[in-house]
Amino acid sequence: MDNDVISVAETIGIPIGKLYMLSNNYRPRKKNRYSQYVNYHTFVIHHGRGHKNRILHIPNDLLKHVQRRILDRYLYQLEVSKCSTAYCKGRSLLDNSYPHVGKECVLKLDISHFFDSIDDDMVYIVMKRIGLSVPATTLLTHLCTYNGNLPQGAPTSPYIANLVMKRFDEKLHKWCDERGITYTRYCDDMTFSGQKADLTRANVVGKVRSMLHRMSLTLNDKKTVFISSSQQQRVTGVVVNEKPSLSREQHRALRQEVYYCKKYGVIDSLKHQKLDITPDKYLKSLLGRISFTLQIEPDNREMKEYFEDIKGLMNN
Q1: Nearest Cα to Cα of residue 191 among 294, 80, 295, 86
Q2: Residue 68 has pLDDT above 60, yes or no
Q3: Rounded (10°) CA dihedral 69, 73, 77, 79
């Protein structure tokens, strides 16, 4: 037995046989016969008419535990690009939006079918950076992929995707920096900002399309957006025209929800909004959205008051 495979099993705390069972989709049933072993179940998120459904592949509890161990013990030891702001400890939506504050123009691009387009060969190259033997590297790759691709729904997938994109991010950042353009990436959302003349002259879309093509990735042209400073410039949900903030519509919605809760009570407020959710879950969700607003706008007195109001309702 390979020493590194033994080391992986000891580090994760799961017997080798179980790891190999979890690394494929089949298990022995009787001698010379196999039955399907369900390591993942599929969950479909419906986005409504006119929008494509989002398909998640969720690992079972044991595999999810193993993947979290792989993430903590191995993957977090590998650095991602500074341009990558999603799913990284200490980084947030604010880190993705803040570099684009006050720019003349903002260009937003989207990578099509991001997770589905990252195959097991790409993941294997990432796992090689850990420095283990071929059998151990192959085992880790199979534990973090499903049907040859990166499963959207596994805890390891977002960070692996960032590691796959590391060289791309660094090369694109250098190219943009030489042309006076700011670049950040939040998962499959890429944002560029700067002077309109610089963005136009550089042909950013063409450059990105070419670089992605070399990785067998493509742009989702339907989501390409060019926004001037005369319009509301939103980067991953944050308005960046003058300073990081949420939109007026988002503020208005929160203000209205807090008002209804205080005036009519939580239960009647839910009836009024026709929401099928328990009061406890609703208040937690509302408090979370207010907390997010305060992360973006830490000096917002109104939101600080709302935060205390909702906390008070939760304690009643």
Answers
A1: 86
A2: yes
A3: 0
